[in-house]
Write a structure and sequence with these properties.
There is one protein chain. This protein is an alpha+beta fold and 347 residues long. The chain has two domains: 130 residues, no CATH class; 190 residues, P-loop containing nucleotide triphosphate hydrolases (Rossmann fold, 3-Layer(aba) Sandwich), CATH 3.40.50.300. It has nine helices and 20 strands. The strands form three sheets. Strands 8, 9, 10, 11, 12, 13, 17, 18, 19 and 20 form a ten-stranded mixed β-sheet that branches. Strands 1-2-3-7-6-5-4 form a seven-stranded mixed β-sheet, covered by helices on one side. Strands 14-16-15 form a three-stranded antiparallel β-sheet. Strand 15 and strand 16 form a beta hairpin. The longest helix has 20 residues. It is globular, with a radius of gyration of 23 Å. The C terminus is likely disordered.
Length: 347
C-alpha cells in the first residue's frame, strides 16, 4: 500500500437510514394556531393535508377563555410513508401510559404520544391513512387535544352534551341511545347555543364549562320529527361511520345558522337522560346519594379524575334531575326552559 494512501473506513452509522434514526430533524414547515377548549393550540406539520384535517375540526371555533392568559399547547403532526399493503380501515386505538406520557397506538406508523407536563404531543400518521380523515381527526388528533386541555387546565372531562344561552348551560348526560344528540340538534335548530355534543370540560370549582362546538352527529332516526327545510339541510351533510358500524350525519355547527357557544357556559343544572318515554312529568329530581351513585356510574372515566369530587359537590348544589323522553324532542326540550330561558328562570 502506498505510504500516502488512506484506508477506507466504512461506518454503518454513516448510511442515510442512520442519519436521523428518530426523525428528530423532520422539517415541520406548516403551522397554524387555533383557540380550542380555553387554550391556544399550535399545530406544526410536514404535511399540508394532515394540517388540513386538524383545521377541519378547529378552524372557526369561538375563542373560549377560562383564564386571563390562555395556556399554550404544542402538537406535532407528522406524516410518514405509507405502510405496505395499501390502505385499509384502521384498527381501534390501543391506549397505554408510562413515564408521565399517555399513548394511543394503532400500529407502528400511526400513533399519538402526549406529554401533559411538557404541554406537547406528537401525532404520527401514515400517508395511506389520510383517506380515513375521520379516524385521524377523531381518534388521534382529538386524543391529543382533549388530554392536553383537560390535564393542563385541571378540567373534568365528561362524556356529555351541553346546550344553553346567555352564558348559562345545561349538562346532558346519559348512555348511548338516550337521546343526547337528538335533543342537542333540536336545541340548535331552535336557536340555543351548543357547547358540545359528546365532550364537555368543566372547571370543578366554578362549574364553568367549555367544549368544541364543531360537529353534531345524528342518525336518520333523529330526522323523523323535522320539517322539510331542516331535514334537507341535515341530509346534505356528509355521513360518517362509527366503529360500531352505525352511520351518522356530521353536521357542521359553524355554518347553516346554528349557534356554537361563543363563550364558556356556567352549568346551572345537570340532566341524566333516560331512554324511557313517558306521557307524564319528564323531570324527576334526584336525591343527593342517588345522584352520586348514578352520575358516577354514568361517568366512569371522569369519576376517577382528581376534580370529580369537587365537581359532583358543586353540581348537586345546583340540582340534578332525570330527564325522560317526551312525545317528541321539542317537548323534551321544553322541559328545560326554566334553565335555558333567563326570563323564565328569573320570573
Amino acid at each position: 500500500m502506498p505510504a500516502n494512501a488512506t484506508m477506507a473506513h466504512t461506518d454503518p452509522f454513516d448510511a442515510p437510514e442512520f442519519a436521523d434514526p428518530f426523525g428528530e430533524r423532520m422539517r415541520l414547515a406548516h403551522a397554524r394556531s387555533w383557540p380550542v377548549l380555553g387554550a391556544s393550540f399550535v399545530f406544526a406539520s410536514n404535511s399540508e393535508a394532515l394540517l388540513a384535517i386538524a383545521g377541519s375540526a378547529y378552524e372557526g371555533l369561538p375563542a373560549h377563555r377560562l383564564a386571563p392568559v390562555p395556556p399554550v399547547f404544542h402538537i406535532e403532526l407528522r406524516l410518514v410513508p405509507a405502510r405496505a399493503g395499501g390502505p385499509s380501515e384502521p384498527p381501534p386505538v390501543q391506549t397505554s401510559s408510562g413515564g408521565g406520557m399517555v399513548m394511543g397506538i394503532v400500529d407502528a406508523s400511526n400513533h399519538v404520544i402526549v406529554s401533559p407536563a411538557q404541554r406537547r404531543a406528537v401525532v404520527t400518521v401514515s400517508e395511506d391513512r389520510l383517506v380515513f380523515a375521520y379516524h385521524v381527526r377523531y381518534e388521534l388528533i382529538e386524543f391529543a387535544v382533549y388530554l392536553l386541555a383537560a390535564r393542563g387546565q385541571d378540567l373534568v372531562s365528561l362524556h356529555a352534551a351541553c346546550i344553553g344561552g346567555e352564558g348559562r348551560g345545561v349538562l346532558l348526560l346519559g348512555p348511548s341511545g338516550a337521546g343526547k344528540s337528538t335533543l342537542t340538534l333540536q336545541a340548535a335548530l331552535d336557536g340555543y347555543d351548543v357547547l358540545a355534543e359528546d365532550g364537555v370540560f368543566v372547571e370543578p370549582k366554578r362549574l364553568r364549562a367549555t367544549g368544541v362546538p364543531n360537529f353534531l352527529h345524528v342518525t336518520d332516526a333523529s330526522l323523523a320529527w323535522l320539517d322539510g327545510p331542516a331535514r334537507r339541510q341535515i341530509m346534505a351533510s356528509p355521513r360518517i361511520r362509527r366503529r360500531s358500524g352505525v352511520e351518522k350525519f356530521e353536521i357542521d355547527l359553524r355554518g347553516g345558522g346554528m349557534r356554537p357557544a361563543a363563550e364558556p357556559l356556567d352549568i346551572v343544572a345537570t340532566m341524566l337522560l333516560s331512554p324511557q318515554r313517558t306521557d307524564g312529568p319528564l323531570l324527576e329530581p334526584m336525591a343527593r346519594d342517588d345522584a352520586i351513585v348514578r352520575l358516577t356510574e354514568d361517568q366512569p372515566y371522569a369519576a376517577r379524575q382528581p376534580g370529580w369530587r369537587r365537581f359532583i359537590d358543586t353540581a348537586l348544589l345546583r340540582g340534578a334531575w332525570v330527564l325522560r323522553r317526551g312525545p317528541d324532542p321539542r317537548a323534551t326540550l321544553q322541559a328545560l326552559m326554566p334553565w335555558l330561558d333567563v326570563q323564565e328562570a328569573v320570573g
